[in-house]
Predict the 3D structure of the following.
Amino acid sequence: MTGVAFPKATVALVACAVLVWACAVNPVTGKRELSLISESQEIRMGQEGAQSVVNTIGLYPDSALQAYVNRLGQSMALASERPQLPWSFAVVNDATVNAFALPGGSIFVTRGILAYFNSEAELMSVLGHEIGHVTAKHSVSQISKAQLAQLGLGVGMVLTPSLDVLHQVAGSGLQVLFLKFSRDDEAQSDELGFRYMVEAGYDPREATDMFEMLGRLGGGGRLPEWQSTHPDPENRAARSAERAATMTVDPSTLRVGRNDYLRHIDGVVFGANPREGYFDGGWFLHPDLRFRMSFPSDWKRQNLAQAVIAVNATEDAVLQLRIVPAASPRAAADTFFAQAGIRQESASSGPVNGLAADTRYFTVSTQRGIINGLVTHVAYDGNIYQLLGYGTMAAFSSQRMVLSAAIGSFQRETDPAVLAVEPARIDLVRLPRRMTMAEFHRRYPSSIPVEQVALINGVDVGDTLASGLLVKRVTGGP
């Protein structure tokens, strides 16, 4: 086939035709808008992203809590503008205070955010907000605009059924997790969430305190916080109060669901779970897997669900620990070096602290230069651990001893105190009489400061709590 040069005017007309073809009616606004993604593609993206969430972050292991959150979410989603989507609602096992929606109807809340809610209505306000992102197709709009920018109105590519850019986005898994919504998107989702929860029979006045609470929180988990993924459209709490003041429904007929909600989160893990590994000074300790390994204390470190990663200050050297599927250290090493472009330099089969191991140095040629590294595979307690250290030529040369020492520190954990550590958990107390939050903290001590106890209960330290009220505290923890 030979190339044909079309006049610029013709190309412009075809491009405009493509844009018209690519427009779809927004189910919320009823207006036509750019959409290069079909509903089936949107669903596929979201389901791939949801599977990545399950694989890399993990779901909170409480089937009753999962069923409860899913039931509440479904009650709103099925009455929304897009009831035909395969909606799902789940709790991820992370201490971060956040909630997020994937394209196509997969919605997640963290166990961290559940600890700060005090009623079903508060939870419903957040679920309604996330449903709004999906029904208004905010993610679809963002991805479509990104595709259009990448394609540069390349008409042939737009009309191609299988877009390379679409494949890249859909296959990226967690990349679709935290698309940065605009303030306009956030404001629209707030409004939709308000309508959804009222239609579901819940008191929207609970959303005001909830929004104020979210603005006061800090970090603590593996994921971004609410503030970084949900930009404030300005005066969010005030606007929530204004909307509630104008509703025509009698508030006394609407549900809050305080006690039912609190009973469902009684015993939920609060903060990071040390059973899943934690840093103590220069050591990373893992009680469940019964090992410890040193990591440079001045490096940026993070404990993820599938790996522990540390990066030096100049971000040109990396240390990583993870479990890999293999029958032996040698088999794991052979698989590692079967990857294209990795060249082995030297090898050793000596043990690491009495554990069978395979250690090899390697180089990799990349577009940015040569990468040097060290990889050790260790067999321990039925698992094969991959201990990987690498960096640029200069960084590896200067950090080689640091990386080698860290990898060589992998060993059995035998300290009874470490092996017995338990996570902190939410614990409910029914007040026998009226008392202030400060008095409550003195009589029923928590393993967190009184200011934080007040925050998870949605009150101030000096507030008086009514007799018979269910109040949260936090017990246990390292």
In short: Confidence is low (pLDDT under 50) at residues 1-22, 147-178. DSSP finds 18 helices and 21 strands in the chain. The CA atoms of residues 328 and 402 lie 26 Å apart.
